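Weekly structure sync - notes
Attendees: PM, LS, DV (DV joined late)
Agenda: review two folding runs queued last week.

Item 1: First target. Sequence and structure tokens pasted below for the record.
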Amino acid sequence: MRRRRHLWYSLFLVPWFVPSTTDAQVADHLLCGTRPIKEGKYQPHGSVKYGDRDTSAYIIPMVFHILHQGGPENISDIQVLDGVQVLNDAFNMQAGDTLGIFPGDTLVTADMEVVFCLATIDPLGMPTTGIVWYETPLTWTGMDPAAKLDPWPRDRYMNIWVVAHADTVTGYTLLPEVADTLPLQDGVVILHSCLGRIGTGSEFTARALPHEAGHFLGLLHPWDIPTGFGDCGDDLVDDTPITIPDIMCGSTVNCAPPTVEYLPNYMNVSYCQEMFTEGQKARAHGTLNSPVAQRDQLWQASNVLQVGACGMVAVDEYKKIPDLRIYPDPFNEVVVVEGCTPGPVSVVALSMDGRPEWAMNVRSGGGPLQLAPGAAVLPGAHVLRIADARGTRSVLLLRE
């Protein structure tokens, strides 16, 4: 069974610049410097049922723009890939540090069923790794919209700019309602030291990107909307309690009606970001099905194929390859593939950042193939790439 596991500008402030600070000093640095949108901008997105997509994940193609001047901010592609892994682990309950049920046994972790993949085809139709480097002094002015260099079309790619400095914050994102009229500023800005766990990144700061990706999908901080109960706030999500910013992961009841302050949520500002809720999932899916800021265009199959995300590349011969039938989806131990031609068949399972996890070469007699990937293919979303005499087909598949 699968483990349960930043408004006008959304700012997630970093406390880790000065390791010798006291807890109080850390708390001061971690306070979030958000600026509320006018009240009318906060509109609940409707819950969206997957319908015939209930076994599939929304695929979001991404491009990383690395702004640097030859210093440590000139991070490697491996660090970017690790950041993508952290992001997908957070959104697909694979982070590995949550028990699944939280204070009061009321907060149950949701699998967000959203997968982020690097694009492999750029806006000009040329091959790309989904990572682009720019040598520019703008890396030191990350809060300046000018630092959002060369944005790729937002209806096809999620833009992420990696910078050396952004005042005192680890990252920021425009909510879709604001970004709707600012297409060239739409996307995430994040510090190089808050991307991934390797290189200049760290375990302490790596969850800044899942937080910002949540804002990209319309999620608020859990305390953004004033409630009239002191400093306590709400987020337009039914299953997250009213709360306050909680840096040190306490459990003091400070709100009225009584509410547990401790909320180990990716949208909180704390050391214990471990979960999304079902209500947040519904809101994010609502955003993905809304035309606001063109979020409803990103995950369309035609776009995913056009930009080559998750190993899916559109080619002229694509429709000439017979459709494969792959079931069950999601699968547990065994997955069945029907439609392969007789003869040699190559099957490769890839992680969502393109790393091979499992491979098998078999000989098909034209009938169903039963494949048992074993423990190498972990629960979550994967790309199954199948090659036979008629060509190669890549499909998204979930493992329970």
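Item 2: Second target, run right after the first with the same settings.
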Amino acid sequence: MHLFLRSLRNLSIYRHSVSATVLDAFTHRQPKVTQGHCGFLPDSPYHSSQPWLPLRSDRRTYNPARNIDWVGVKRRWRSKQLFMKKRKLKNHPRVALRFRLTRFGWERLQQGRRGKKLHLSGQQRRNKKRIRFVSRHDLVKLARQMPGHRLRVRDPPLNNNPNIQRLRRTINNYFA
């Protein structure tokens, strides 16, 4: 049958009556491109000059892997890996409970509040219980332990007015 269809493919009489796509289904070849009324068109069962015949069913016409942005997937994976690499491996599970946000800024509890405070004096114990503001050094620790929290350093605005600066106190007030 295979040799018979291959020999019939070259006959022009058979080509007008049967679509080349069906022949390609038997011979497992790609359809040939022939010259149609609009230039070069592939042989298709949907073309008006050819009768309808079933298409090849052994191959999927839709490939979902082509529609996936593999470059973007790889970029997101690399950024996530870099993010996890910078994070501390075993972060403290209750580190978020030691920090709180108030209207005055981020506050934290002083460390060393466990067994070591038995050996402290009374004043040192009271000092350890005191709540302090988060310093710039604590922000680095927070960024490693809690990467989900983004704390930004916001200094008070700089005032360049020479009358307010500390240098004006030493110089004469009427100095221009």
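Discussion on item 2: The chain has seven helices and five strands.
Action: LS to circulate a short write-up before next sync.
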